[in-house]
Amino acid sequence: xxxxxxxxxxxxxxxxxxxxGKTADYCNSWADAGPVIQQASIAVxxxxxxxxxxxxxxxxxxxNKFVSHPNPLRAAMIVFLMIKDKAIG
Length: 89
What we know:
Blueprint: H1 9-20, H2 30-39, E1 42-45, E2 52-56, E3 67-69, H3 72-83, H4 85-88
Antiparallel strand pairs: 1-2, 2-3
Helix pairs in contact: 1-3, 2-3
């Protein structure tokens, strides 16, 4: 599994676009990322004065695909790429 957390936003956007077939700003636009988050069943939890958490709802909080980041969309897109890792690896 690749370490998506080390990638820049444009690299994450590129790989998400490779999977979805649509170029967009997934790390910074709820309009672009929302459908991906919904279709992949990714939970995004934002807490006051804390990092946003994202994880696949089917695996829950104990998932090995759990990501925390200040940008909730970036966290969700990293989880998406982790779910689709075999498709892009």
